[in-house]
Fold this sequence. Notes:
The chain is an alpha+beta fold and 282 residues long. The protein has two domains: 2-131, no CATH class; 145-280, no CATH class. It is 45% helix and 17% strand. The chain has helices at 2-19, 23-33, 43-55, 66-74, 145-158, 193-208, 220-237, 244-254, 264-280; strands at 63-65, 87-100, 106-122, 161-166, 173-175, 183-188. The protein has a three-stranded antiparallel beta sheet. The longest helix has 18 residues, at 2-19.
Amino acid sequence: MKNNNQLEKALNKLNSQISEMTExxxxxxxxxxxxxxxxxYSLLNQAMIYSQCISRGFEPxxxxxxxxxxxxxxxxxxxxxxxxxxxxILCPKLYNKKFENSDGNLExxxxxxGFKYGRVYDISQLENPENIKMEAQSKVTGxxxxxxxxxMDRMKSEYDIEIKHMDFEKGGHIERAKQGxxxxxxxxxxxxxxxxFKTLIHELAHSKLKHNTEECNLSRGQKEVDAETTAYLVLxxxxxxxxxxxxxxxxxxxxxxxNLKPNVSEIFSxxxxxxxxxxxxx
Length: 282
């Protein structure tokens, strides 16, 4: 279908852009993704914005659509030289559908039919950026340690895993379950809870990305880069950015030759699923 093709094309283009990044650009891309500066945009659109800006040699600071944001809200216009250099994102295609509810009354709902491309602009592309007051574009506020503990406890039944807190030198790991048995994820009891939460997400990512199956032929390094990138993005979307430096160091340790790039479409699918579950925990 055409609408699905737009999404597929966007993911393919993003994969292509990331594959062409140097290691320095890749780390900058991931660091930007963890900053939550563009929290009002979807994860995919954030990645599309950051990758395009980095490839052009600048980092986005404040992004918005021309008419609905820059003109309507800030009375500002894009420079003529920048108008054709808009940053592409995916916008939902909606139509209003009427239906009769259980009370016999007509209601209108918006139905998503697919996606279309739209353009947004960074503040640096405007005619008078110095006259605009910078504003936060993030809706991410973080979660408390008590909530993290509660989420981790709920995840044990949701993902059919057993969590063991143990004393060992560093990190954590997962034991592949035999048929009919639970997977065991071992966490380091000497580390902060946010670090162990990221480790738990990392190990769950291996499972979501099917790294533990016999059919998976990815290298160990690629698996670790993909799993850590997943954990890194999940935590950044939740506002937990304290683990940023350790994640970057971990990714670099496995990507020492600079030739491993995250598998974007699979990672985003895993991130979306895990994040949706976490945010749904009451």
